[in-house]
Structure formats: C-alpha cells, structure tokens
Amino acid sequence: MPLDKNDTRESEDKLRRRAMNSFLDTALRYWREDHAKQAWLLTGSILALVLLMLATQLGINSWNRYFFDALDVRDGHRILLGVGLIGALAFATALISVLTVHVRMRLQVRWRQWLTRRLVGDWFAERRFYQLTVIGDDINPEYRIGEDTRLATEPVVDFAMGLLTALLSAIAFLGILWSVGGGIHLSLSGHEFDVPGYMVWVAILYSFIASALMVRIGRPLIACVDSKNAGEAQFRYELTRVRESAENIALIGGDEDEKARLDDTFTDLVARWIDVIRQQANMTWVLNANTVLAPVAPLLMGAPKYLSGDMSLGELMQVAAAFLQVQTAFNWLVDNAIRLAEWNASSQRVGVLQNALTDLDTQIGKGAGDTIVLGASPDEKLRIENLSIAQHNGKLLIADTEVVVEPGEKVLVKGESGSGKSTLIRAMAGLWPWGSGKILRPVGAEIAFMPQRPYIPLGTLRHALLYPATAQTRDDDTIRMALRKTGLIHLADKLDEDAPWSRILSGGEQQRIAFARLLINPPDIIIMDEATSALDELSQARVMDFLKDELAAATVITVGHRPGLEAWHTREIRLVRTPGEVHAHAEERRYPLAQKILKRLRGES
C-alpha cells in the first residue's frame, strides 16, 4: 500500500528546526575549531566593552542627580564641575563606542569569512557543486553563501551585545529605581500600606503592558517578513534565469512570456510588501505612544514624592533616566522582532544549504556502499569493471559494462538518445557517483574533460587558454602556435586583454579554445562529449587530426553523433538496449585501419 506523501515527508516545522540546528551546529564551530583563539579574543573584548559602556551609563545616570541637585540649590561651582564631568563622560562614551564598532564589526567579518569558507569548501568537496545541480534541489547556493551568510551572522553579534546590554542594564537600573526611588505610602479606602521600591513595579508593569501590546499587534509581522523575503528571493531567481538564458529566450521569442511571468511574480511580491507595511503601520501606534509616554510616566509617578519633599529634583531626574533605561532593556526583544524574523529566515536558508550538501552522501548511496568507485589502475590502461550507472533517483541507465582502454587508444562512444552516453563520460571523469562498479584510471594520469560547451573563465584570454593549469607558464610562441593550428590566430594579439570572452567568442571559437588548451598542455587522457558539435566539417577534421599527430600518445574517449568521426578512432563502444529492458549495455566494434595508422604514427610494429 503506497504511503501518503504526508507520512513520508517531514513536517515543515521539523524541516525548519533541522535547518536551524544545522546552521547553529556549523556556525558555532567558529568558537571551537581552528579559529577559536581569534573568536574568543574578539568575544572577550566585546564583553569588556559592554561592561565599560554600562559603567559610563551608570556614571551619566549619577551625573543627572548631581547636576539637577546643583541647579535646584543654584550652586554655580557644582554646576561648572558638572559640565566638566559630562564632558569627560561624553569622551569616554565616544571612545568606548568607537572601540566597540571596531571589535564588533571585526567579529562579524571574521565569523562570516570563516563560515563562507566552510560552506564553499563543503560545496566544492567531492564536486558537490555539480552533483547539487544534478539532483535539482530548489536551492540557490551562490545567494545563500554570498548574502544569507552575512544576514545570518552579522545580526547574531548585534543581538548578543544587545541582549547582554539589556540584561545588565535592567539589573543595574532596577537597583537604582529601588534604592533612589524608595517606597511610597498609599491610603486607599481607609487602608494604609507601604509599597517598597514602587518605581520598580511601575517600570515592570509599564514594560509588560507596552510589550504585550507590541507582541499582540506585531506577531503577524514575523510571518509577513518571512513571506516577503521568500518573494524577494524568488524574484531574484527568476531575473537571474532570464539573464543566464537571454540568448535562448530571444531566439525563440519568449520575451513576452518571461515578461508576464516576472510581472506576476513581482505583483505577488508587492502584495507581500503591502502586508508588511500594514503590520508595521499597526505597530507604529504603540511605538509612537510609547515614545511620548515613557519619559513622562516616571515624572508623573515620582511627582508626589517630589512635591512632598521626600525626593529632590536630582533624584527625580535620576529615577526618570533609570526608568527609560529599564524600558529600553525590557523592550529589547520587541524592538528587534523584525530583525529577529529576518535573521531566522536567513539562518534557516544557510542551514538548508548545509543539509543539502551533507545529505548528498546519503542520496548518492555512500552509506550503503552503492556508488561508483574511482580507483587506480594496476597498469597504464583505463579499466571499467562491472560498471552500472543509474540516475540519481535510482533508475538504471547502463548495466554491467566491462571495458579496457589501451594507452593511446581512441574510443568513440555511440548510442541512441537517453542511453547514457554523456552520463558514462561524466562517470569516467569522476563527476557521476550514482551507480556501482569501478573505474580505474592510470596513476598520475592528467585528464582533460571537454564538454560540448567549454568553460571560459573570467580574466584574460591567456588565462582562458591555460585554464585550469593557470599556475603553469607557457611562452607566447607556444600559445600562438596553438592558436594558429586551431584557426584562432586572429586572437593572438589579444592574449592579455581582460574581457568577457564567454560572450565575445562564438560557440565554434570556444570549442577551438578547448582544443588549443590540449596543444598547450597535452594531457594523458582526453574525454570529449560532443566537443566538435559547433564546428563545420572542415574545422572538425582540422582539430581532430591533432589526435593522430600532436596527441597520438593520449588516450581519447569521445561521445559524438556526427558522421565521419570513426576516421579518428580505433574502435567504437555502442550503448544498446535489449528489447524489453530500460537500461543499456555496451557492445564493441573495432576499426582495424585506424588502429594500424595510429600504431604506425606511434612507431609501433
């Protein structure tokens, strides 16, 4: 009996908790692993600066009492001394604030740097950056690594400082309210009683009412902000897709469809923004009312004691300042509700990426030992032993393949569409782990993989020609010779131009760049997947002749459909399906004439 999807899928809340736990587990390792000393030094400095800032705030609070008492008795000497004291306190506060900015932002940058490197390392490890695209999860790694790591780390430092400051301030200034505000004697309905530390209870009650109103009115805001951020991410994703597929969209005339889709997505985003605006407008009622009432409330509550002479003007002003500090401390969570919601969403997105990367091993099947093994060949031959290749969902593509490729042999791979030719090539290149069996490659062999659309990196043309062996150097004569042989001599004077070559060069020129790389840095094994599809027949013959001449010693495995490729290969591996089976198996066919020619070129008998 098939299971219901709801029974086989984790609930949304569990997924969010798992993502958050994954983020925290990874991010907090900054304080436990290789950079722990740096992390604790910056953290300790922040703690010390928070304590110093609290000391200056207490000093300013005491100054209020001192200065207003001096005004009350019209003592000019004390007033002048108070002016000097506030100047010193202002300088100390500014100095501590400057140091706090330096240390706080350094901790934020270093933590983000550490986490970004960790995520990038996990993304590139075992070529997960490629496997993640194959699995097709709806994940945007570049945005999550580039932006969400910032949004998930920077606020945490601010939150930690703010929460610690709020806690210490609440304790310190409640003590001032208790000691300076004192108690009050009340008479209600003929009953008289004393309320010790009454300003403390007033501050707590006032904060509770204000916070309760903010929470009640602002609770929907968190969900609205989360929804708005998701809409922003979707809009960015669709814009990126249009940019990346601009040529195809333009060629097939999909402009209007894409424009309409973007308009629908942005309309939905605007609606989500309107929800956020509505909730923020509702919260403004409480925020503005609190801004007006918070400074007045302690003055009103302290007025009876001041009028009765039980409290001096300085004490009243000190209590009022302490009351405001307590309000700020108690309302910290409410004031930061929006930022907390945004941080929660960003940290979950980073956690989802981390989970996707770590889950790849399970999806590949490494836990059960069901994966293609890349190993070292016992000799100079490329060996494929009992190889079965599957899609990432487990569907078998190729079954029980046995192939041995001699050094310098040129092998052509053919088969009908969907038989797994390109997947076989990717497995040989070490990109495709799904399946079973072994691919054994000669120890130390340098392998060049040539896809249908070569990768042209950013930078100069020289950098593109040497890629990926950019650490090596080649003289200009070698590079120019390669350009001449591949029909790219017209680019010889542009070697050091930094330009977007992937957009400047045509598809055929890009494929010839890939062949030029082979001539500049000849590899031991060449794996080609439709590497000449953009070339005309004459150009194809010109570059394929390299396999018989300059690259005669290299082992070549080629996937190609175009007629005539047989002339440059010694044998053919055809992937065929037996009637009634969905997977393919390999059949071989040799080209004796080509073998003889290649042997003679290598000087063999």
Descriptive key words:
605 residues; Rossmann fold; 6-stranded mixed sheet; elongated; disordered N terminus
Describe the protein's architecture and organization:
The chain has 605 residues and is α/β, with parallel strands linked by helices. It folds into two domains: 10-364, Up-down Bundle (ABC transporter transmembrane region fold), CATH 1.20.1560.10; 373-601, 3-Layer(aba) Sandwich (Rossmann fold), CATH 3.40.50.300. Helices cover 61% and strands 12% of the residues. The chain has helices at 5-8, 12-27, 36-72, 76-124, 128-135, 141-181, 198-244, 246-252, 255-307, 313-330, 332-335, 337-364, 421-428, 461-466, 476-485, 501-504, 507-520, 537-544, 592-601; strands spanning 184-188, 191-195, 373-376, 382-390, 396-405, 410-415, 435-441, 447-450, 525-529, 555-559, 571-577, 584-590. It has a six-stranded mixed beta sheet. A four-stranded mixed beta sheet has the order 3-7-4-5, with helices on one face. Helix 3 (36-72) packs antiparallel against helix 4 (76-124). The longest helix is centred in the middle third of the chain and has 53 residues, at 255-307. It is elongated.
Quick summary:
Helix 3 (36-72) packs antiparallel against helix 4, helix 3 (36-72) packs parallel to helix 6 and helix 3 (36-72) packs antiparallel against helix 10 (313-330). The radius of gyration is 36 Å and the shape is elongated.
Topology:
Elements (H helix, E strand, L loop, with lengths): L4 H4 L3 H16 L8 H37 L3 H49 L3 H8 L5 H41 L2 E5 L2 E5 L2 H47 L1 H7 L2 H53 L5 H18 L1 H4 L1 H28 L8 E4 L5 E9 L5 E10 L4 E6 L5 H8 L6 E7 L5 E4 L10 H6 L9 H10 L15 H4 L2 H14 L4 E5 L7 H8 L10 E5 L11 E7 L6 E7 L1 H10 L4
Parallel strand pairs: 3-7, 6-10, 6-11, 8-9, 9-10
Antiparallel strand pairs: 1-2, 4-5, 4-7, 11-12
Helix pairs in contact: 2-12, 3-4, 3-6, 3-10, 4-6, 6-10, 6-12, 7-9, 7-10, 7-12, 9-10, 15-17
